[in-house]
Write a structure and sequence with these properties.
alpha/beta; Helicase, Ruva Protein, domain 3; five-stranded parallel beta sheet; Rossmann fold; 368 residues; binds zinc ion
């Protein structure tokens, strides 16, 4: 197997690296779209991320790499085995990197149920597709704008749901499909429909690097990697290991990261002042901010986490045109948050929002 360029040796492209890392902490944020010209290291970064990720516990002989610790996500086969009293064997496995061909069809992606075998012999036979191979891994789609819209829809659906459910003629088969979705496109070769664009949680626009010192570093590192790939990788091994551990720790922490009503106000202030349609962006910003906090080993989100998350969640959701803003900066995002907090924030000060009370319970509570 070819040696993979180390993630930690990538020069610049801070937003792209951050978007990938947040999805590695929580793949259910819902995918990253990287837009940029050819030769801007988009696929290098995605491959490098997969090679970096911590090993995961899987059911050793399950073709869907089910997580032995998450019974609610198990595939139909693992469920049946446990129901029959079998104990599932466990092993550690590296994160898979699945490269989706642009010609992929629906059947190839979701898999197929053999209806004839079911009717004639009462057997349930499922031929696994790309989503099976991608579970717990990274699914990479180069030139996503050239893929069939319907297939892109399916991929985004299962990424958000975390399951792939195939149903035909009253027979169904389900397996987990939790993957880091990374799509790339060259904007010069046609755009994605706005509906599909909005379904990618995060997006990053890559530009060539103009800073001289960074360009020099890129040349030096590329030459060193070409001359001796394995030696170069070994040189970066300790950085790779430490980033891998940080991701592992953040994965364990992310579900416990809390947020307050004040935080939600900051998010709403951003999306409403920038006239973002719908509510998907608000939820994406919250998820990405929680992943950002977990990545920094914190258990509560801050306004900076929110601004950093919005910087990745909003670029592809802003309306384009002469009267709308097409570029956003971190400073601008933070200024908008500060302004909203100065106006109405006091009323929301530190009020917890993580566990809303049922409406009827509120009525009878002595404090209400
Ligand atoms: Zn399974």
């Amino acid at each position: 197997m070819a040696v993979v360029y180390p993630f930690t040796a990538i020069v610049g492209q801070e937003r792209m690296r951050r978007a990938l890392l947040l999805n590695a902490v929580n793949p259910r944020i819902g995918g990253v779209l990287i837009r940029g010209e050819r030769g801007t290291a988009k696929s290098t970064a995605a491959r490098a991320l997969a090679a970096l990720l911590p090993e995961v516990r899987v059911v050793a002989d399950c073709r869907f790499a089910c997580d032995p610790d998450q019974p609610t996500t198990w595939c139909t086969e693992c469920r049946e085995r446990v129901a029959c009293g079998e104990e599932l064997p466990v092993e550690m496995r590296r994160t898979s990197f699945v490269d989706l061909p642009v010609s992929a069809t629906e059947d190839r992606v979701v898999g197929t149920l053999d209806i004839e075998a079911a009717i004639k012999r009462g057997e349930r036979r499922f031929e696994a597709g790309v989503l099976a191979a991608a579970n717990r891994g990274l699914l990479y789609i180069d030139e996503v704008n050239l893929l069939d819209d319907h297939v892109v829809d399916l991929l985004l659906d299962s990424a958000a749901l975390g399951m792939n459910i195939v149903e035909r003629e009253g027979i169904s088969f389900a397996h987990p499909a939790r993957y880091i979705l990374v799509g790339t496109m060259n904007p010069e070769e046609g755009d994605l429909r706005p509906q599909l664009l909005d379904r990618f949680a995060l997006s990053v626009d890559i530009r060539g690097i103009s800073e001289l010192a960074e360009r020099v570093a890129i040349i030096e590192r590329n030459l060193a990697f070409e001359a001796d790939g394995q030696g170069f990788r070994d040189h970066w091994l300790s950085q790779e290991g430490s980033l891998s551990q940080t991701i592992d720790a953040a994965r364990r922490l992310v579900d416990r990261v809390t947020y307050s009503k004040r935080n939600l106000l900051s998010i709403a202030a951003l999306t409403s002042s920038l006239q973002v349609d719908g509510h998907r962006a608000d939820l994406v910003i919250l998820k990405a901010a929680r992943a950002q906090a977990a990545f920094e080993a914190r258990t509560a989100i801050t306004d900076l986490d929110i601004a950093l998350a919005a910087e990745l969640a909003l670029p592809h959701r802003l309306r384009r045109g002469p009267f709308h803003q097409s570029e956003i900066t971190l400073d601008d995002l933070q200024a908008r948050i500060d302004q909203a907090q100065a106006q109405v924030g006091a009323a929301y000060e530190s009020e917890p929002a993580s566990e809303p009370q049922p409406a009827d319970k509120k009525k009878v509570s002595p404090a209400g």
